[in-house]
Design goal:
By secondary structure, the protein is of the alpha/beta class. The chain is 21% helix and 29% strand. An eight-stranded parallel β-barrel has the order 3-4-5-8-10-11-12-13. A six-stranded antiparallel sheet has the order 19-16-14-2-1-23, with no helix packed on it.
Length: 490
């Protein structure tokens, strides 16, 4: 048996003779079809954390907790940020294994639950009367200088304390219009604030949040186009609507394509995340007979990273779970280590080359520059190295969207291109001879802790993946390599 070709359980390995007689190990990890609970992607819970969500089945992981606050909740008194409220939400997300995402709203459609603070009028802010669905109510006038200045000051306050917070996933760029959705439809006579006011709101978010990603509603017209051109991602309400509002118009075949083209959003997914929220919830999709495969393929093809189903129960039909599972296996990034090659033997003090091939089989990039790290371990000896390769440049596959054919039947999204990474690993001069486990992980470069689950089998409890073995020989001599056959270890 060729000891230096042994690999860990569930991996296939081969040792090949190179022209210079140096044996080369080639490892092909086994891909998993598990739904991966990775950060910054996947299923969002809504106004309830995953550990308290009665509608979240155990087979759906969720790493994002999404909620919305009214202005009055986060600034109960002038200039005073409700730190306890926000810190509590961040702590609850952390305890549930999630990160928080939120939106702040200023304009409520409910007269009994206004979003603006009661003190706004007292400090000279302008409150105006309008209506929603025929019901009169008061809303803040963001075109009023005092009102606008007060609201922008709040955005800056939030960012000063929470931008880049490790438990904050992203911020939904809201503030304007009903529920912060950048429209005033269904009401009057008050309209959306002027373009100049809207631009000041967008600019304040962009200038205040530098480390935490922003997303903005796709229907915001010129403001969405501007925000996304400056680095924000986009989100879309009403995924799944194939005719629930009108026989002649629906979000998926009319609304999204129009807004997408108007705002020139074609390339946004390559640099910032895309989020969807279901229309009603999935039970309505099934009741209406709207095909789940169509809806999910559509979201994947437009490079979604998130789906918020409003923490509603899933439909009970037996064909629903397989479609949801299929969707969640692709939603967001999904990093597969396809192959690893390295010398079978090395001596202390040498530098070995680890050549790996990776593929993003998901629907979106990982937008964080997490790094590929390698580890050698034998007994109490561990050597780690974080290489220069970062996973945020590994792209998913692409299809052309919003064509006539696409709108008839969105195709399956192909996996992305294969990325080859060659990294040098310097062996310490004091390494003792023996067989060393070769492990790989995708880590946060700031903490060196594994942060991403790979779509391969064999993950250890510490988040590392043992993928091969390297024999370290005595420093004085290298044994002549032996030819070994491909073998599969079980």
């Amino acid at each position: 048996m060729c000891g230096h070709a042994l690999v860990v359980a569930m991996l296939a390995a081969a040792v090949l003779a190179e022209p210079d007689d140096a044996a080369l190990v080639t490892v092909t990890p086994r891909e998993t079809d598990a739904i991966l609970p990775n950060p910054h992607m996947g299923w969002e819970t809504f106004h309830v954390t995953s550990d308290r969500d009665p509608s979240l089945p155990p087979w759906i992981p969720s790493t994002v907790y999404y909620l919305r606050w009214g202005w009055r909740e986060v600034e109960p008194r002038p200039g005073e940020l409700n730190v306890a409220l926000i810190d509590s939400a961040l702590a609850a997300a952390r305890q549930a294994g999630q990160r928080l995402a939120f939106r702040v709203m200023s304009c409520s459609s409910s007269p009994d639950n206004p979003y603006h603070p009661g003190w706004l009028r007292d400090v000279g802010g302008r409150i105006v009367t309008t209506s929603y669905d025929g019901v009169a109510l008061d809303v803040p006038d963001l075109d009023d200088p005092t009102t606008l200045d007060r609201h922008l000051a709040l955005v800056r306050l939030i960012a000063e304390r929470y931008d880049g917070h490790p438990d904050l996933d992203h911020v939904d760029l809201g503030s304007v219009g009903w529920w912060g959705e950048w429209h005033m439809s269904g009401g009057g006579p008050v309209a959306v604030p002027t373009p100049e006011t809207c631009r000041r709101v967008v600019d304040t978010y962009l200038q205040s949040f530098h480390r935490t990603p922003l997303v903005m509603l796709i229907g915001g017209g010129a403001q969405t186009a501007y925000a996304c051109s400056q680095g924000a991602g986009w989100r879309a309400d009403c995924l799944g609507d194939l005719g629930g509002f009108s026989k002649n118009w629906c979000h998926m075949r009319k609304g999204y394509p129009q807004w997408f083209r108007e705002a020139k959003l074609d390339e946004v997914w390559k640099r910032a995340p895309i989020a969807y929220e279901s229309c009603w919830d999935m039970r309505r999709w099934v009741e209406e007979g709207w095909p789940l495969r169509y809806i999910f393929n559509y979201a994947l093809a437009t490079h979604a990273s998130y789906l918020n189903n409003k923490s509603a129960p899933l439909p009970t039909d037996t064909d629903v779970r397989p479609e949801v599972e299929r969707f969640l296996r692709r939603l967001g990034y999904r990093l597969v280590l396809r192959e690893l090659k390295h010398p079978a033997t090395a001596r202390p003090g040498e530098t070995v080359t680890l050549t790996s091939r990776w593929q993003n089989a998901g629907s979106a990039p990982c937008y964080r520059p997490y790094a590929v790290a390698w580890r050698l371990r034998a007994g109490a000896t561990t050597v780690k190295q974080i290489g220069p390769a970062t996973v945020n440049v590994w792209m998913p596959g692409e299809v052309e969207v919003f064509t006539e054919e696409f709108l008839k039947s969105p195709p399956d999204l192909p996996p992305g291109p294969v990325n080859e990474v060659a990294e040098k690993f310097a062996l310490r001069g004091d390494l003792l001879p023996g067989d060393y486990e070769v492990g790989v992980a995708v880590v946060d470069p700031d903490t060196a802790a594994p942060v991403v689950r790979l779509a391969i089998e064999g993950r250890a409890e510490d988040g590392w993946y043992p993928v091969s073995r390297l024999r370290v020989t005595a420093a004085s001599a290298r044994p002549r390599p032996m030819q070994c056959q491909t073998r599969e270890m079980r």
